[in-house]
Amino acid sequence: MPETLKKTVKKIFSDYPEIKFTPDAYFSYDYEQSSIHYSLTEKYSAQLLLHEIAHYKLGHRRYNRDIQLVEQEVSAWQYAKELLSKKYKITIYKKLVASCIATYQDWLAQRSSCPRCNTIGIQDTADRYYCPSCGIAWKVNIAKTCALRRKIDS
User: Fold this and answer.
1) What is the pTM of this model?
2) Could you tell me which of 67, 65, 56, 3 has the C-alpha nearest to residue 27?
3) By residue range, what is the domain housing residue 127?
């Protein structure tokens, strides 16, 4: 890890003593534990770390609808780019943001697509969608990083 990145990360950690920073294989923000999981082996580690801090600063908590998660991701990237990147002199690249947002958009498209006719469904509970076209309903798991599963309701 470059020395400048080490110094920047050390500064970020010291600026947020209320957050527990936990080395891990992936980046995530856990609001219940007030912790951020991070990896300094990623090419964009500093940018991803700022994104997770943005979730904390914006007070992101649970979401009731899948689209809310996508909205939280977009707002965290905006906050990281507009405020945190300037503070820490870290460039947040448009391609990185677009790539990260695209993964959530793909996740949402998969969850909301009707397993029978592929029409985009309407979410009526945290784990259930229904199809306005063919009328079926299906349940989805809470997957964000694991395999997505859809099961047609009987």
Assistant:
1) 0.88
2) 56
3) 118-154
